[in-house]
Structure formats: structure tokens, C-alpha cells
Design a protein that fits this description.
With 378 residues, the chain is mainly α. 66% of the residues lie in helices and 1% in strands. The chain is globular and about 60 Å long. This is Probable peptidoglycan glycosyltransferase FtsW.
Length: 378
Amino acid sequence: MLKLKPFDTLFLGIVLLISIFGLLMVYESSVVYSSDVFGGKYHFLFLQFGWMSIGFVGMFFLSRIDLEIIKKYSPYAFILAILLLGVILFPSTFVPSVYGAKRWFVLNPSPFPLIPFIGRIGFQPSEFAKLASIVFFASFLSSKRIKEMGLWHSIIRFNLLMLSVCGFVFIEPDFTTAFILGFILIVMYFLSNVSLIYFFVAGPILALVATLYAISSEYRRERIQTLLNPESMDKMGAGYHIRQVMIALGSGGFLGLGLGHSRQKYAYLPEVTTDSIFAIIGEEFGFIGTVIVVAAFCALILRGLKIAQKAADPFSSLLAYGVITWIAVQALINLGAMTRMLPLTGVTLPLISYGGSSMIFMLWGLGLVINVSRGNID
């Protein structure tokens, strides 16, 4: 029987601590809404525990499988991701339109019966696309083939592949997820030791396109205006969400109101279990609590970067860098929005916010990082 090399237990420990704390906060933030709507305060807790269980089971297997197998089948996963992203763009019973966006594939839509204790099961193909793209591009950018291409040939090939997946996410529409995915892939491209000419050419163009898109619609302009001058916005309209976030964080003070004593979860704060869960953390655990959460993410990211740096081969290194960049950029955007450093974007806090697709695929990605750490720990 093949004996597996030891893995980074510190990295796994940090993942477990953040995830368990997230499960507690999902329960704390959802207890009022869950009781009112579902008649029981444990609804979201049970669901999140179920998603976490699937995530950790997948993490266990992906942390043990031969990475060469992952590399071999990565193109098929990437193609599947694009097919799923394409499917949800077409009208279907299985693809509901939520606030004008088509981001979910529902496995048991009406008139199919609800599943006991769960209801309807759906997942976001864009979350699977993040993981599939990271694995595929780690394989693509570390291959001998790309090194044999000319500079501009490799740049064109990279851009076409990146735009093929980011473009589908963009037209859902989901600009923020498309931006996150594109950012991850560009970081991986940069870390693959290619010429920096790509960034001098593409950087300004991408920045200009993102800026023009950000100001191209009224609701995006309102979000920017809310960030820059919240007092000028309607406190019950565009400025309501960020105002409630600031009230929650301000109410927590230095030590917080105490576990279970949040007032904003009583239907005041929108998206209380997902985008805004950090505000509940600040309200109940205060400044100290938020600092500890940020420190935990910093420890996870730094440990992950160390694993990536010491990886045995370029594929493993890029794979770990991609997953850690995913965690870092998504956490940064969520925390930036909650502290009024960035516009509100609807991005969840990794491993803490409620959500099945995000939790499952992120834990699977972290399982791959643990796999990379085998035999490379100190």
C-alpha cells in the first residue's frame, strides 16, 4: 500500500478553525430569520453543516489523490465548467432568474417536490468554474507547450482561454465574480515567469474597461456614490445597506455586545448570513473579534503562500498560488466592502458566509493545497 507523505497540519487547523467559527456565525446571524420564515432556528445551521460535510469529504479525497491525475483531467473539468456556464444563460425551468441575473442551476425546481429539511437544491456554476479554471490554468501555464510558443502566441492563447470562461460569467451578469476569476488567472500568469510586457500592455486596457463598466449603469454609479459620499444617499434606499453595516460595527465597540446579542440580525441588516456576516461578527465580538478574524485569514494566506513557494513542481506551485489568491482576493473584497473601503459587491466571506457552492468548492480547492503540502512542510 502506498504510504502518503505528511501534510501541513497547521494549514488544515486554520481552515478548520475558520470553518467552525463560520458555522457558529451562520447560526447566530440566521436564527431570527430562520425562525420567522422556516419555523425553526436551526434551518441554516443544518444546511451549512451539510455543505461543510460535503466540502470536507471532498477535501479529504483531493488531499490524497495523485496530482498528476488532477492535471491529466483538468481540461475536461474546464470544458465542463464552460458548458455549465453556457447552459444557465438559456431560459429553462432549472435556471431561475433572480433580480435579472441567471447564476443558479436548480436540481429540483417547481413542480418537482421539495427535499425534506433542505427545500430546493441549486448550485452556482461560477463557483465550480473558479476551481476548474485554477486547476486547468496551473496545468496550461506549467506545460512545456506554452514555453515552446512564441511570446505573443502564448499571450493570445492565454487571453482567449481566460476570456472564454470570464466572458460567460460576465454576461450572467456577474461582473464581480468575473473580475475575481480574471484576477486569479492573471496572478497565476504572472507567477509562471512569463514576460512582464503582457502587464504593461493589458493592465491599462483592463483598468479602463473596468472603470467604464463600473459607471455604465445607474445602480453601479449609486454604489460608488454610496462609498464616496454615503450621507448624500437616501438612507432608506441606496444608502440603507452600508448604513446598517456601519451601525452594526459601531455598536460592537471594542469588545462587542456578546455572542447572541446582535440587534442588526432582527431584520435590519440585509444579506445577514452571506455578504454582511462580518458586520454581525463586529457587532457581537467587537473590534477585537474582527481583528482575530482578519488575523486568521492572514495566517491562512501566509501559510498557503509558503506551501506554494516550497511546492515540488511548477504545476503544484501554481495550483496552490491560484487557490490562495482566490481566498485572499475574495476576503479582501468582502472585508473592504464591510469597512467602506470598497463598494458593496455581493461577495461572500470565504469559509464563514452561508452558501453551499462557495463552501464546497473552496474546501475542495483547499484540499488540493493540502495535497501540495505533502512532503514539503517544516
